[in-house]
User: Fold this.
Amino acid sequence: MNSIHNFPKLLLPLLAAVILLLAPACQRDKQKFNTDNLPPIKGEVMAKLTVAPEVPPRIQAKTNTKVIVHLEIVEQVMRLADGVEYNFWTFGGVVPGKFIRVRQGDLVEFHLHNHPDNMFPHNIDLHAVTGPGGGAEATLIAPGKSAQFSFRALNEGLYVYHCATAPVGMHIANGMYGLILVEPLAGMSPVDHEFYVMQSEFYTSGRFGERGLQEFDMQKALDENPDYVVMNGAVGASAGENAMQVKVGETVRLFLGNGGPNLVSSFHAIGEIFDKVYIEGGSMYTENVQTTLIPAGGSAIVEFKCEVPGTLHLVDHSIFRAFNKGAIAQIKVIGEENHDVFSGKEKETVYLPEGSAIQKVGERKDASEEVVSERTLEERLEKGESLYKQNCLACHMDQGKGVIGVFPPLNNSDFLQARDDKGFGIIVNGLQGEIVVNGTSYNNIMPAMHMSDDNIASVMTYIFTELNNGGGLINAADVRQWREKNK
Amino acid sequence: MKILKKRTFAILLIALLVIGFNSCDDSTAHQETTASCCSTDKETQSDEPVSLSDMSVYHLDGDWHDQNGKQLALKDFAGKPVVLTMFFTHCEYACPLLVHDMKGVEEQLDADMEYTFVLVSFDDKRDTPERLKSYADSQGVGENWVFLHGDANQIKALSILLNINYEALENGQFAHSNRKLVLDQGGAIVFQQDGLQTKPEPVVKALLDLI
Amino acid sequence: MKIIGFYKLLIIGLLCLPGLKSSGQQQDMAFIEGGTYKPFVKGDKEEVPVNAFWMDKKAVTNTDYQRFVEANPQWSKENAKRIFADSNYLYHWPDSGLSQHSGPPDGAPVVNVSWFAAKAYCEWQNKRLPKLHEWEFVARAFPKNDVSADSLQRIISDWYSNRLKHDFLVGSVYQNTYGVWDMHGLVWEWVYDFNSIVMNNDGRNQEEMPEGLFCGSASLNANDATDYAAFVRFAFRTSLKGNYNLRKLGFRCAK
Assistant:
């Protein structure tokens, strides 16, 4: 159910008082609609729907028009993560569902189609609708059927739509949500890029990364304990080679949604500050925000300018979801460095929302004082390999291949081989700022790893021997010596 | 706080009003394959005055009894427009309103118009023709009002044909949808209206369109 | 399902089936000893009685249905009235009807049949469609060969997740303790009174649709809101009309 517009006159003063009390930071001039005298509708257009992260172009008609939307529900097995598949229930064959864009005052003629090969009944509740169930009652359809209804987009804002067929939680958990934007008739302020990113979680029979076709796990959903928290429907859907791309100096507007079904998102862009956030997708905005909450079944619009090159990581800052459950999308900002804004070389950070101090990974105290007997090359390689997998693999990848431009390679690394400290300093102190490895420039942060001398010796033996850096046994004593010298 | 509470209350109140209004609002029939015109019907007998379209409700076989004990089939209603609903006489709230709504429709029709009002009972046990007769008398309705009694199986088939949900309850009552339908001379559904205390005009208009 | 309920069913299955089965001549039907059953949607009473009845062991196949159509030409693909069966009626059959050389395999359950068609078929066999409570009563029974607590749920869950691998043939998924096959995992099935889902026991304030099933109040009306499989079945039935023909909806008969 959506907000109701036609307040009786009596209530308007009360409402005004409430608005004054809330004292918004900023507010767009908002056109109020008198539902007894709605603007006339001229002509009609077929809505263009897009797949995340794309956003459809704005409708150009000067006056309000009839917007015809066709959305097809498809149940199909798709990728949830590498090697992991899931039987998704989708609006438009994709998760999140296709993006719909209309203007305030437009008449939306909505056609919902339930594909005949589907197994389940479905419907749609658009939060942008003022009317019973947001259209849910009017659109309940069996497989092989279509339903049609119309509504006036009375309130501007960014709204979630979702399936509301019982059991609602299960339909949403299987992927049935998307966003519909109701923008002002005159459009929003121009920006260089608009993107669509929607967070949601999946509850699977197998744990994160367990291969094969996974099934929905009702108990995990009840416990609100998802195995996957993802941006745009799958792990890596809008990251890596699928990352969004912009140029330095360009402005970006993100239409953000949270499909849930359960979790609230602490939405954050690593390496960026939101210049503007339209709170909860409404008309009021606030400025200079690091992390904005997006409720399940809610949205936000954020705007920022990309001042420096690099990769922005869009994450749920409930951070284990980002690094352990998949909630990362990326925007690659390409262009010239602007050292006035961000200088890696001077080892200074102008802004780092995560804090400028280098993190330390691992908590054991006095690791260096631990007395251990030395090990053979074979023992070090075996131990080193497992340590590599635990501590290094996530970024430096299998066989130390790295990720070009993001995480430097360790395999046959000229940078590593040229160092006098055999890399001990990097592990103990961490490393940040721009470096060049095998001809490619990297500008990222590696946290200090709080490892024992013994473990450092093992992992570096592995890296030097197995990853083609010249080989050779490294002893814990070598590390201890280096520590003494560099105290 | 007080203001907020009042506001919340007001919104709730308005929401309720809007929902309530909507539930009583007219909704037109969702005919996916509208029988726009009368396709030739293979089984129509030549002695029947009106050919039945593929979407005719009158294809439903079975014998019914009216309030006068007369045995008839649905197709006997062919030839005149029909306003059809399902009800039961022991119903205390919804059905009297349904009947009231039907009377409201009749009041707006010209006396010389030819149409039939058909009310089919859910209650195969208690709504015997005799019971229906006394109910019809108590309502003071004319000869063109037909109250039908059938067996449980027929009632179920008709309700499914009309997309009317109902459930027999332990206490002898029935939970049911409140739906009025307008059938054309060939028995095809041309209009339906859901809810109680509805406006008569849309039904009247649907009837006039048939003449 | 509760363990106690399951043992009760098992005992009923073991004790009652053999004796009664031999007295009846129904090879292809299973005798279902009545009992009480707790319906998914809360009604006047916590439990409703289910009287003893017979249930087809397997869903009706294309071959079975072909015989029906031959004997009842008004139910052929081209003759069926649209008010009883919409244009998807027997969609998967060649227009000329089934022959030995075309169409789906013999043992596949017939789908794309409407409620009216299914009802006519059962009546032609001197049977009837099972009632909703009857169908649900039988559907609760555990697989015969795997009576562990979650075996039934696993079949349903695999089915919903598209993980169930089997030939699309009747008698291929599982047989329950009544000897009835494939109550879950093969196709949805029509029940006689699928339109009996009316949430409010009072006649007043009736909406056209039982909105309680798919709106927020659903959980308030459900006996067990975590039984999502039951939710799905009820939502499915709510979305149906009598002349619909769906690719994953078939039926079986009872008497």
